[in-house]
Every structure is written in structure tokens, then in C-alpha cells.
Amino acid sequence: MKRFIAMLLCCCLAFGLTGGFFENSLADMSITADAANEITMPYYYYQLSDSDKKIYKKIRTGILDCKEEIKISSSLTKNQIASFAELIYYYDPMTYNVQQINTSSSSTYVKFKMTYYKSKEKYNQNMAEVEKSAKTIIKKIKSDMSTYQKIQLIHDEIIASNEYNQTTSDCDNLYGAFVTNKIKCNGYSKAFTYLCNKVGIRSIIVKGDDLNGGNIGHEWNKVHYNNKWYNIDCTYDDPVCYLTNNSAYCYFMVSDNALKNTHKQSETTFSVPAAKDNTLNYYAKKKLSANTYDDGKTLMSSQLKKAATKKQSMVTIKFNSEKEFKKAIKYWNDDDLRNIMESASSEYLTGKFIKFYDENMYTFTIMVFYPDTPLSDYFTSKKEISEDFLNYLAKNGIK
């Protein structure tokens, strides 16, 4: 999926559990093991019956202690066992060390036999490193921040500290997200939920398919805010690209309908909450969305003017309708955009710029350049940049 986005981007280059108790308790991680166990429980745990909660908690405690056998003194149905396994394999970030589960049973008990990827000593060591890294991020969350700002900070920190990678070990778990920092979608989604749980923000992992990438498996998140649910996909907002400023907010706080062309939820034994509201997506919240093509031109001009005062290289706006977005794609030629840039500020190197867009989320981005600034302000690598473009930038002091 990420490779697809990178390829698409290059083609487009144009020349609940909220509350102060949890947050205060977790500020310095000085909480009991039982409290930590409860706080980091996956959302779907709370859909279990009271008796099944006790059973799952016992299984989970055994897993976190890397027990090879966990005996439950009760008979369980196949559906119960399946629910527990689903939580362990897919929805509980803490149980990533489980490699395989086998069960044996009688009329009075069920034995869960576990095999693990790592020894108890190695897992404990890894989780200590995870906790240390998570604590660093949590310390950035200030008491005067709104919940929306906290969610955004978690989203941004996960993206900023990680590089998309499908092949490295631990790329699908917390250790990859917080320590090795090379992860795929599973790592992004588990890290996001883990941090949200830590600060008392209700979040879930959503399993499904990436429709952009040929219906391959994918994971993202839903987060609870102001009594409503919203989708967040850190993977999609962290595009594989050679741009220095490559994070985005196209898939931040959006509705299920907004994801209809890119994401498809998988069936699960649990109840997945619907995300119906799209009014708090990042661009709407920041007043960066336009209803018409003409509004978009005015908005782009004002944002380019603001960006110039801070030497920011990326400006993105969102159109609220497919019709107006497609009009912008069709009619905003390079001369039009250059004129908008020139009218916005004299700071820009207006001879060259890069434009790209997301056809599913109706966002339009311009990447601009400033004379006599370092090339590293814009690109992480030269290998994807044409020699002609590099020479042009160099003539204008961008090396």
C-alpha cells in the first residue's frame, strides 16, 4: 500500500475512558501493574461479558508473563475461545509476543498453550524500552492541551519518529514503533492505540483492506472524541517519499464515508463503532477547506502568504466536494499557480514548484522553494530528483 502511495505521489509531482484520573496517573508511569493492565486493555475487551473479562484478564496476565500454559477452570465455547484469540492476535497491542495459541479442554477446564517469538527476558527488556520511548512522547502532552490537540500530537509523533518498512523484524508491533522505528500499518495502528490508552483517550484498532493497494490487508484506528468516533490512518498520513516535510492530515479525524474509496473494514466478532461525522477533519478544523473553486484560489493565496512569513515549504488546502476539486485539478495550470504565489509573496522562488494532490480526499498541495536555503529543508535524498532540477535550485542558492 505504501509503495503504491509513493508511486502515486511521484506521478502527481508537477514539474468513554477519558478523564483526568488516567492522564494524571500516567504522567510519570507510577501506577500499579493491575492499573496498567486495565488501562491498556483493548476497546473490545469492554464488549465481553463480566465473566469473560475475568477470563481474558487472566489469559492476558499469563501472556505478559510469557507463561507457556494458562489453565482456565471453566468450560468455554468455540466462540469464546475465538473472541479471546482475536483480541490477542489483532486488537491488543501488548500481546504482540504471542506466536501461536493451541487449546485443549475438558468439561471443566480449558488449557491455552502458548508459543512466543521472544523469551520472557527479551520481551520484558523490549517493553521497558517501549515504555521509556512512550514516556518521552507522553511528556509532550501538556495539561492545557485540548483532547483534539493531544490526538494530533500522538498522530504527529508516531509519524515523525517512524519510517514505513514491511520487512524488518518487529515492523508490526510496539517495539518496532517505539524503538527500531521501522514499521508497517500494524505498527502504526498499535502504537496509536497504545498511546491513546495511556493518556485516557479511547481508541481502537480497525482491521480491513487497503482498496488502493489491491485489496491487501490493512490496519488503521478509530478514536473517540466529543461522544463521536473518527477514523485516523497514520500509515496513509506518512507517505513514502523523499520530501523532508512529508506528513499529512488527509486521513485524520475523518468519517467512514470519507474512506469509502480507500478502506474496507473486515468482519469481526466485535461491534465496530461507526464514524459518521466528517466536520472535524483537520482541514475543516483549521479552516483550510473550500466550498468552491474560487474560494480555493483565495484560500491558497492566503495560506501561501502565511507560509512565506515562516519559510514553510508545504501548503495544503482541501475542497469539500469532488466537483470543485476536479475543477481545480483541471484549471489550475502552472501559470495560474505561479501567479497566485507571486501575488502572495515576493519571498518565493516562483520559477519552480511542485504540486500534488489526493484524489480521494480532495486535497491540493503546493511545495514551494525559497532562495538561498539548504536543500535538506526540502528533500531527504537527491536520488529521486532530476539533475536539471538540482542544477536550477543550485543556481538559486539551494544546495
At a glance:
By secondary structure, the protein is an alpha+beta fold. It has helices at about 1-10, 20-25, 35-40, 50-65, 80-90, 120-140, 145-160, 175-180, 185-200, 280-285, 295-310, 320-330, 335-345, 385-395; strands spanning about 70, 100-105, 110-115, 165, 180-185, 205-210, 215-225, 230, 250-255, 265, 290, 315-320, 355-360, 365. A hairpin with a 4-residue loop joins strand 13 and strand 14 (about 365).
Q: For the CA atoms, what is the radius of gyration?
A: 23 Å
Poorly predicted ranges (pLDDT <50, ≥5 residues)? 1-33
Total strands: the figure is: 14
* Overall geometry: elongated
How many strands, which pairing sense, and closed or not: the largest β-sheet? 5 strands, antiparallel
- Give the N-to-C terminal Cα separation: 32 Å
Record the strand order, biggest sheet.
9-8-7-6-10
Which structural class do the helices and strands define?
A: alpha+beta
Order of helices and strands: HHHHEHEEHHEHEHEEEEEHEHEHHEEH
Residue fraction in strands: 15-25%
Number of helical stretches of at least 4 residues: 14
Mean pLDDT across residues: 88
Measured as a percent range, the helix fraction is 40-55%
